[in-house]
Fold these 2 entries.
Entry 1:
Amino acid sequence: LGFKRSKGGQEWKKKINDVIIRRVQFNFNLNEKERWIGIIPTLNVWHKNIQELKVSAGILDQRYYKDSATVALILNNLCGEKSYNYNLGTNPEGIVDELTSDISKFGLPVFTNLENLDWILKNLSSNNPKEWCVPSASDRARLIPLILYIKGRYGEGLRAIKQLKDGLVTRDQIIPDINHFEKWFLKLNHN
């Protein structure tokens, strides 16, 4: 499939071109008392142009520019809320076979969507946060305007900020806050 894992890493990467990198990342949780391990496979895509704007806006620290996902979906949700919980002592080959099968069947096809800015905009337009390819309303309120700006639709991006920030007044989770982001975005029109 062309994915490569760095030594000691928890993710496999595949560079599509100079602006897109696909990644499959695995997070783990261990329940020692009940003796099981949970695996959370995430499919994410790194978009260079969006990441550069996030750094410029102060949303993303330059140190994490390459490591941070732009958009992501959890495999469990793509498979109908399936869980990957295994009793300690379960045959590892069976776990690998199940994960590989589900990633191939449900995960790989979604990468094309996660690379497509129009699809991302449509995804983030959903009223159901479980469908979003970002973790929070705060991320959504920044990503939609950035994509609209990249697509040459600055005015729509500015309107989107004004509309989306109303829902963030008391629960904005990103620093700098949405008002700072809006001021930064306004300056883009003058560059």
Entry 2:
Amino acid sequence: REVLNVRPILAGLDVWSVQEDEHEELDLRLYIEDRDDSAWDLTLESPDSRVTLEGYILRVHHDVEILDYAISISVSDGREISWHDLTVHVVGVNDPPRIYEMRFNGLLVDYADLNFTFREGEEDVLTVDAEDEEWDPMVYTWWRNDRQIASGQILRYHDLPTGDYDLTLLIDDGSDVTSVAIHVPVTVKEPQ
């Protein structure tokens, strides 16, 4: 009399949620159902080389948030084989807003050198463009001496007396804040 072999399957595992910037592992032995065998061969088909299979351990590391994707895992007991599709869902970590452009009176400035010279009695304009990787809405606030002086991407400043000022720009995406210190000397307006 021939003994009927039960095909092994992966059960109860449809989505694997992994955290961005974390090295994640998943022991597939916890999900293999096979009534008549206890040793299996596993193979992996993945469109993403960051997913690896070592023995029964599935490993992944994503340094950025990406869209969900599917991988396929086969389970074989030496006589029967089954394939299981698994969705990998990468949960993003909030990244702070990042400034990609700053202009002073319409001219592009080097973000690494934030020293501007304002002219006494003239209007000066600082414009900032930032981006948020998660597309969260951003709030821009400008501060001088712990007092908010403006909000929005544009700071218009005029009538500052001669002296040195330290401004702070805060860009808040609701979860994280980028802070930028800006030193502003104000010089006497040159006679025309």
